[in-house]
Design a protein that fits this description.
alpha+beta; Hypothetical upf0131 protein ytfp; 161 residues; globular; 4 helices; 24% helix
């Protein structure tokens, strides 16, 4: 390598289905994040299986379910930012773990991407707050998720804050 040159940053795909669908939050956490498209994850359902002491409510997770589908946002982000996101998602503390899975784009293509799942899931649902669900619903509206999925998000029972 010639003096003064640097290695190029490698990018990867990240599938967000929870509060990271919020543009402001994602840009703060991962400055390199670039929205690519809405994607769907068949064979999973959205669940709230972890309590966040920072948010004081339940937070999103994906759980295997043969009849389920989760909609979310596919981002392209740098490897440096995925490492930062690991910290935000509590990977070092065992809250979430990062996995590789395949999502489907509108044109039918399957894309291998990174996503986070709760490491130690609660056996009973933990309700999200109105504020937390507001982030998910707002992103779903902004990115034109299917109407049925938006209705589903709006139907999730929340805590009063």
């Amino acid at each position: 390598m010639a003096p003064g040159t640097t290695l190029s940053t490698f990018f990867m795909y990240y599938f967000a289905y929870g509060s990271n669908m919020d543009d402001r939050q994602m840009k703060t956490r991962c400055p390199s994040a670039r929205f690519l498209t809405v994607a769907r994850l068949p064979g999973y359902r959205l669940a709230f299986t972890i309590f966040s002491s920072k948010r004081n409510c339940g937070c999103a997770d994906i759980v295997a379910d043969p009849s389920g589908t989760v909609f979310g946002i596919l981002y392209e982000i740098s490897q440096e930012d995925i490492a930062r996101l690991d910290v935000f998602e509590g990977v070092p503390g065992g809250h979430y773990r990062r996995i590789t899975l395949n999502v489907i784009l509108d044109d039918g293509r399957r894309i291998s991407t990174e996503a986070y799942v709760v490491a130690r899931k609660s056996k009973t649902p933990i309700p999200p707050s109105k504020q937390y669900m507001g982030l998910l619903i707002s992103a779903a509206v902004k990115r034109s998720f299917p109407k049925q999925y938006r209705i589903f998000l709006e139907s999730i029972e929340t805590t009063g804050h």
